[in-house]
């Protein structure tokens, strides 16, 4: 989308928008146009943000009661609601996603995240234990939750506002102050959120926003900063590993939501049409740029040919279009750089012996979209379980479909991965569903659905997919320190 005079996206530190000397371009992945210039935080900028966050802990924020904080978070949610279409426009400009997705998922969840953690903080209980003592008078133990302190937040570009607020909301609900860095690929909605925070009356220094890249930029300056007390990160597994090293000397607590190579399993007794529709969603939603997407699809041999034919037909019917086009199913990838990565796997798949059932290249539109970062949704068969395309996270609109014969075999094959984030099982035999679900080594299993979310549940992965859990009281456990107080009666 053309922008005559690109805006300048600035940092938000101590309640003020501040610039920095260097900037980088924010490019629209629909047509390659310049959306904005974005300030790049240097070490001094990050220092200033950490100082402001530390100071705010000792100010009115630190004295605020839980109900007062919760009320403020609801005001932030109200503020996002009041500027809903601006947030939609910001998210769509940065990512090229369908407008209907930005409305129904991204911005809606930004509001829900603030509301759910405001309510959770207000209603969460703590523990108490009465204990007998030798003198017969007993003692009372009770736990209290205290803020961790200054929390560093680093988020990815694939669901920008959703994943940014999924960390900011509980961190603030627990009484912390934050320095939050969105991805360099998707800075716009976070910048709008800073305005909403200011207008809602969040005290200066409580929420600080810094823009920039990772290595040798804002991200790394933040993770290495002695002044943060904890670091929460969502992004690639290898980045998580680098961040773990960066915080190790300070023994800082980390929460990691990382990569995945998730499986969908269609058993012979599945509702066929539901499974086809579900696998289409879990393969191509958000152009496959969701950590929960199914890049590995396993179908019982008895259904395999029919299932592949059905997926082929539906994939070729997907409407790949501008974000605001009527009935659009899929937009571009986030950037030309990411498109190059996905296309390198499209080429690799051929070298590894894939049969291309559908897609495998770049669509030609004959309009501005040819300057965007579009790729064809792609379906493969014929690859081995140990091919790079069936073991490495591609993070694009692609899935590989393989046949299987029995339950024991498929449990072994699904678990044979260095990742362990999510899995979707399609079967009408619910005994089988419960039996298999608990044997899949992941953090999240969906049965006869995909990406259905209750925000009270634990969210996270095992192995290279992450450390810790977010959601409900699991977030409270990360964003607060629990102390036990024992009183002799
Ligand atoms: N498990 C989950 O909940 C979840 C959710 C969304 C995305 N993801 C994963 O995120 C990845 C896609 O997102 P991405 O490309 O933005 O990931 P990424 O790791 O490249 O970047 C994520 C964020 O980390 C920053 N960063 C990069 N290197 C850094 C470093 N050395 N130190 C500090 N900060 C650094 C980036 O600037 C960005 O803000 C995929 O692997 C996807 O699976 C996981
Ligand atoms: N954390 C969540 C989604 C993660 C999506 C990954 O791309 C959520 O829905 O809360």
UniProtKB/TrEMBL annotation:
Cross-referenced PROSITE patterns, in alphabetical order?
ALDEHYDE_DEHYDR_CYS, ALDEHYDE_DEHYDR_GLU
Q: Name one GO molecular function term.
A: oxidoreductase activity, acting on the aldehyde or oxo group of donors, NAD or NADP as acceptor
- A Pfam family: Aldedh
Question: What are the UniProt keywords, alphabetically?
Answer: NAD, Oxidoreductase
Please state every residue range assigned to the domain named Aldehyde dehydrogenase. 18-483
Q: Where is the active site?
A: 257
Q: Which PANTHER family match?
A: 2-AMINOMUCONIC SEMIALDEHYDE DEHYDROGENASE
NCBIfam families per the UniProt record, alphabetical: OH_muco_semi_DH
State the family named in the UniProt similarity comment for this chain: Belongs to the aldehyde dehydrogenase family.
Protein name according to UniProt? Aldehyde dehydrogenase
Q: Which species?
A: Undibacterium terreum
């Amino acid at each position: 989308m053309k922008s005559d005079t690109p805006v300048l996206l600035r940092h938000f530190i101590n309640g003020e928008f501040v610039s920095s000397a260097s900037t980088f371009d924010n490019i629209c992945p629909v047509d390659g146009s310049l959306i904005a210039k974005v300030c790049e935080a240097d070490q001094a900028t990050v220092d200033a943000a950490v100082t402001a966050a530390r100071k705010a802990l000792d100010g009115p924020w630190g004295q605020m009661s839980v109900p007062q904080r919760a009320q403020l978070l609801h005001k932030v949610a109200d503020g996002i609601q009041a500027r809903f279409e601006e947030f939609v426009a910001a998210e769509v400009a940065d990512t090229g996603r369908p407008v209907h997705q930005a409305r129904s998922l991204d911005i809606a969840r930004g509001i829900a995240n603030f509301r759910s953690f405001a309510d959770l903080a207000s209603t969460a209980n703590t523990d108490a234990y009465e204990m007998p003592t030798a003198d017969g008078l007993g003692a009372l133990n009770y736990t209290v939750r205290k803020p961790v302190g200054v929390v560093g937040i680093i988020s990815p570009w694939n669901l920008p506002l959703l994943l940014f607020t999924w960390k900011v909301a509980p961190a603030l609900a627990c009484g912390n102050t934050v320095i939050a860095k969105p991805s360099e690929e998707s800075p716009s909605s976070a910048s709008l959120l800073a305005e909403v925070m200011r207008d809602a009356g969040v005290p200066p220094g409580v929420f600080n926003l810094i823009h920039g890249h990772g290595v040798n930029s804002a991200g790394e300056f933040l993770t290495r900063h002695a002044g943060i007390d904890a670091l929460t990160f969502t992004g690639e597994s290898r980045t998580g590993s680098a961040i773990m090293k960066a915080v190790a000397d300070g023994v800082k607590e980390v929460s990691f939501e990382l990569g995945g190579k998730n499986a969908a399993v269609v058993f012979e007794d599945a509702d066929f049409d539901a499974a086809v529709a579900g696998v289409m969603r879990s393969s191509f939603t958000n152009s496959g740029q969701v950590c929960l997407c199914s890049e590995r699809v396993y179908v019982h041999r008895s259904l395999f040919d029919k299932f592949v034919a059905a997926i082929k037909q539906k994939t070729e019917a997907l409407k790949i279009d501008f974000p605001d086009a009527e009935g659009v199913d899929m937009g571009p990838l986030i950037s030309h750089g990411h498109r190059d990565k996905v296309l390198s796997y499209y080429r690799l798949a051929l070298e590894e012996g894939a049969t291309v059932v559908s897609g495998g290249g770049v669509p030609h539109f004959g309009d501005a979209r040819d300057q965007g970062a579009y790729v064809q949704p792609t379906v493969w068969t014929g690859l081995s379980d140990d091919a790079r395309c069936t073991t490495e996270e591609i993070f694009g609109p692609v899935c590989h479909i393989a046949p299987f014969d029995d339950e024991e075999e498929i449990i072994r094959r699904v678990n044979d991965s260095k990742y362990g984030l999510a899995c979707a099982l399609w079967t009408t035999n619910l005994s089988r569903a419960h039996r298999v679900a608990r044997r899949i080594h992941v953090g999240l299993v969906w049965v006869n659905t995909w990406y259905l979310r209750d925000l009270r549940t634990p969210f996270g992965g095992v192995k290279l997919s992450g450390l810790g859990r977010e959601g409900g009281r699991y977030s409270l456990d990360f964003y607060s320190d629990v102390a036990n107080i024992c009183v002799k009666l």
